[in-house]
Write a structure and sequence with these properties.
The structure is a single chain. This protein has 380 residues and is an alpha+beta fold. It has 2 domains: 241 residues, Rossmann fold (3-Layer(aba) Sandwich); 114 residues, OB fold (Dihydrolipoamide Acetyltransferase, E2P). Helix content is 25%, strand content 31%. The protein is built from 10 helices and 20 strands. The strands form 4 sheets. It has a 6-stranded mixed sheet, sandwiched between helices. It has a 5-stranded antiparallel sheet with strand order 13-12-11-14-20. Strand 16 and strand 17 form a beta hairpin. Helix 3 packs across helix 4 and helix 3 packs parallel to helix 5. The chain starts with 7 loop residues before the first helix and ends in a 9-residue tail after the last strand. The mean pLDDT is 92. Bound molecules: adenosine-5'-diphosphate (ADP) and magnesium ion.
Length: 380
Amino acid sequence: MSIDNMTDEVAALIEPTGVDAVSFRGATRYYPKSDVAALDGFDLEVSAGEFMVLVGPSGSGKSTALRMLAGLEGVDAGSIHIGDVDVTHLPPIQRDIAMVFQDYALYPHMTVAENIGFHLKVAKVSRAEITARVNVTAEMLGLTPYLGRRPAALSGGQRQRVAMGRAIIRRPKVFLMDEPLSNLDAKLRTQTRNEIARLQRDLGITTIYVTHDQVEAMTMGDRVAVLRDGALQQCDRPKRLYQRPANTFVATFMGTPSMALLDAHLDGEAAALPGHAPIALTREQRAALTGGHVIVGVRPDAVSVVPAGQGIPGTVEVIEELGNESFLYVRAELAGQSATIAVQDRDGVMEIAPGAMVGLRVSPDMVHLFDGGTGLRLPD
Ligand SMILES: Nc1ncnc2c1ncn2[C@@H]1O[C@H](COP(=O)(O)OP(=O)(O)O)[C@@H](O)[C@H]1O
Ligand SMILES: [Mg+2]
């Protein structure tokens, strides 16, 4: 059942009590005995009702950011706001936030109904209201048949939904999820990811979702914030992150197979790639360079295979057949550097075996250009 098919009275049992924006302003966290910030001057504005995803490799500060917002971790500099309220120093209970953790943290001795209703019971909500709200929440999550079971008798996906139910039943202003799908197998992950996105749209609740999986980030978020080493790299709509990555880190992190990065040097008005026709740079691009080096970023759709002897010489290492598409991974040799470049085989017709010598031709208008010194994107 989705919230649209419910009567107003029933929907009111689970709709959030309010929808607020969240803002991190220079939020910084040093863990005890560490002189490196786990989160460093973090600025992020999440709009009311938005689905924001934080993505980045392990250790990049995603959980720290969520825990600071929830009040589970201190803020050493900067501030955090929910709506008009500066919550930086508010205890967790006063922040109106619910969080779903990676391990779900269900109570093993309680039934599904008791787990879902737990926070309401603690808050001394009447038994009749708890029952009504548990029933609506369970219905929405497809858990009605399991209300009497204990967590041990549930599948991983069902446990995940109980954890979600326990959080949304509180009608929080902000909903936080920290890698909630990492214990599920691949198929269930895809399915659950769609369910969570639908639930978020139905409830319209401001949500911050943490994952290290860039596919999850791209498919779920209204916007995606990419973190690395405690620092925000870029925050934008998924498509823009893919089309206009702000630096080489975002460029290689988002997209599978990864973008290949090739070193080129400035030769007159163009970037010279060994074995390849020069790639022309605009006046603005040349002006933005901090030195004589350019990084040419090549996604699989920006390169094609040509007969050996033409283009950049390479050797086919691996052929990846994905059914509807396939990729060749070509080890390319460019004077002094070798790089693996993934090539999309659009029609699946290339009759090439691993070990074959080929040439690669890059489409100059489809490459991404970055400064060789800073790794920052050159103006388009
Ligand atoms: N309780 C802690 N004490 C000390 N250091 C921590 C603690 N939790 C996390 N860290 C460190 O802070 C950094 C960010 O961690 P975390 O926010 O957990 O990253 P992520 O969630 O992106 O994997 C890492 O370097 C991690 O080792
Ligand atoms: Mg984490």
